[in-house]
Amino acid sequence: MPKNLRKVIKTALILSIFGVAIVFRFTLFSEEGGDFGTFLKAVKDFETGKNPYEYTIQTFEDTNLGNQGYAYFPVLLYIFTLLELAHRWLLSSIPLFSLWKIPIVVGDVGVAILLYKILSNKSFSLTLFALVCWFFNPYLMLTHNYTSLDSVVILFLLLSIYFFEKHEKLATVFFGLSIMTKVFPIILLPLFFLLAKKKLSFTLTCLGVFLLVSLPFLSDINTYLRGSVFVNSDRFVQGRPFLQYFSYKFSLDFIRVLPFELYSLASIASGWLLTVVFYLRKKITGLTTFLILPFLSFYFFTPVLNKTYLVWAIPILFISLSGAMFKKRPVLVYVLILAYLTFYSYYLIFWTSGLQYGFRG
């Protein structure tokens, strides 16, 4: 087959996947989502000069108030506020909850573009497989739910991975933004720090991102930190955490042996400890090859494991495995990824129809 024709076919395949994925997502824009009221309350408070984290703290302290308030750092709050203002001034004919899905689409497409850029020089078939797995992941296909904002966090995180060896300061900015969107990328903090060429610059840049994003709330930093971070330590077992599943399956009640807070701490500290140990033993050959291990240790220990959490690992798995073993064991990479997706599908089915053993999902 002529080289130019192969290129045209490959381009057509890639564009077709993007096109079908985007069109499919637009068919899901009519769903409001359970967190819509929570985000809207936070946006309205922010626009009127109230600190939305005050209400967040109240909802965690008094469950009679209903849904728990906005409990993240404020990047998403800023995005939603801009879209709410656009809705009020320019786009009032479009439902606000539909506008608020635009960042999700941007996140999904952005992650796919980065997967293409990172993987395309390794294997076209692997790239194609990665795009299909990301765009049509088990969570989306089994639930048809399109309200999760995790793709925005993953986009910032993948941007930091992509630019890490090209422009370290820019990568650090994106890494800081990923944490300030949802805090879970903090499990990779030691990995980025240890591999950074300019560790002082990395530290100061992360601090700068935190201060800049937090600027409107620094006058009451205690309320800000309590509402965005520390209230989450007041959560109870949620979703289908693996330790809870093992507790039920093998009659070993892991969750009640130790306080909830220790499992939350272990979900982060275990990945940090593994990173330091492997780094000191010179087992970490690069940023991408070690990405997946802190995620797996987080999944194992966390007492809060919701349906969307396992989506995080899909692009990380592709990037990590392609860097670690694709040249030598390409078949194994496909087998491991298929095994993960199969497990994720089982996990979602189990979530819907399975155990009712003190779970709340």
Topology, please?
Blueprint: H1 3-26, H2 36-47, H3 52-61, H4 75-89, H5 96-99, H6 102-119, H7 124-135, H8 138-143, H9 150-163, H10 168-181, H11 189-195, H12 199-214, H13 221-228, E1 238-239, H14 242-250, H15 254-257, H16 260-280, H17 292-301, E2 304-305, H18 313-324, H19 330-353
Parallel strand pairs: 1-2
Helix pairs in contact: 1-7, 2-4, 3-13, 6-7, 6-9, 6-18, 9-10, 10-12, 11-16, 16-17, 18-19
Question: Total helix count?
Answer: 19
Beta-strand fraction estimate: under 5%
Report mean pLDDT, rounded to a whole number: 86
**Alpha-beta classification:** mainly alpha
Q: What's the overall geometry?
A: globular
Oligomer: single chain
Sheet with the most strands? 2 strands, parallel
Compute the CA-based radius of gyration.
21 Å
Helix content: 55-70%
Contiguous uncertain segments of 5+ residues: 354-361
Give the distance, in angstroms, between the N- and C-terminal Cα atoms.
52 Å
